[in-house]
Design goal:
5 strands, 5-stranded antiparallel β-sheet, alpha+beta, globular
Length: 86
């Protein structure tokens, strides 16, 4: 599970050959969420409000890069790092 970005204690990653819809995994402390890349919403899990806002804002900014990484991960190819939220 490669980590593609980290910011404010949040790790963003992909699983290789994962299920649809296109999504990424985010971890903060012991909490985990799956975020739909296209719809920009949580599929599963929960985060504190502040961290969730950070993740969703970051996902909107990097939507194209996330979709490219999704396609790479589906093919079990190396994914690219994505700039963190600053």
């Amino acid at each position: 599970m490669p980590v593609v970005s980290e910011f404010y204690g949040i790790k963003i990653s992909f699983y290789y050959d994962d299920h649809n819809p296109p999504h990424f995994h985010a971890d903060y402390n012991s909490q985990k969420i799956l975020v739909d890349i296209v719809k920009g919403r949580v599929i599963k899990g929960a985060f504190p409000s502040k961290q969730l806002k950070f993740v969703l804002a970051w996902a909107e900014i990097h939507k194209d890069e996330l979709l490219k990484n999704w396609e790479l991960a589906k093919q079990s190819l190396p994914v690219s790092k994505i700039s963190p939220l600053m």
